Amino acid sequence: MSNVFSFTGTIGRDAEVRSAPSGQTVLNVTVANNIGFGDRQQTLWIRVALWGKRAEGTFPNYLKKGQQVFVSGELTQREYQANDGTTKSSLELNANIIDLIGKRNEQSAPPQQAYQAPAPAQQQNYAPQQDDGYDDVPF
């Protein structure tokens, strides 16, 4: 049986990146998912963790408060004791996919000079090779 939960939502707090005791990098972000309509609408807050190489680099710079995202991964529910002694639960997702959707949040835009597109290369015409090895592809 597979446990895959996919949803869209809005980031509630900027992403945090840290290293686990094992040395592996983990990115944590909280995403709000609205369910229902009108006065019956509820907001589910889901803690999302992205592990390993995907959590490194410049990607966390785009995961800012207000950014809309698509998230997919394995959902778990964790119970914990609150400061007042009551038992609470939270939804947590180990993400396989985090994609940016909607408009980019202006606060998450990196400085223009840091991410300028390279100058277009001169267009070259390449003649197809006669024996490219793809004639026997079954589809």
Overview of the molecule:
This protein has 139 residues and is mainly beta. The protein has one domain (5-110): Beta Barrel (OB fold (Dihydrolipoamide Acetyltransferase, E2P)), CATH 2.40.50.140. Helix content is 0%, strand content 47%. It is built from no helices and five strands. It has a five-stranded mixed beta barrel.
Brief characterization of the structure:
The protein is an all-beta fold. The chain has no helices and 5 strands.
| Overall tally of domains | 1
Which residue ranges are poorly predicted, with pLDDT under 50 across at least 5 consecutive positions?
108-128
Helix content bin:
under 10%
β-strand percent reads over 45%
Distance between the termini: 30 Å
Q: What structural class results from the helix and strand content?
A: mainly beta
Mean pLDDT: 79
Per CATH, the class reads Mainly Beta
Net shape:
globular
Largest sheet: 5 strands, mixed, barrel
In DSSP terms (H or I, runs of 4 or more residues), the helix count works out at 0
CATH fold call = OB fold (Dihydrolipoamide Acetyltransferase, E2P)
CATH architecture: Beta Barrel
Widest β-sheet, arrangement of strands: 1-2-3-5-4
User: What radius of gyration results from the CA coordinates?
Assistant: 21 Å
Total strands: 5
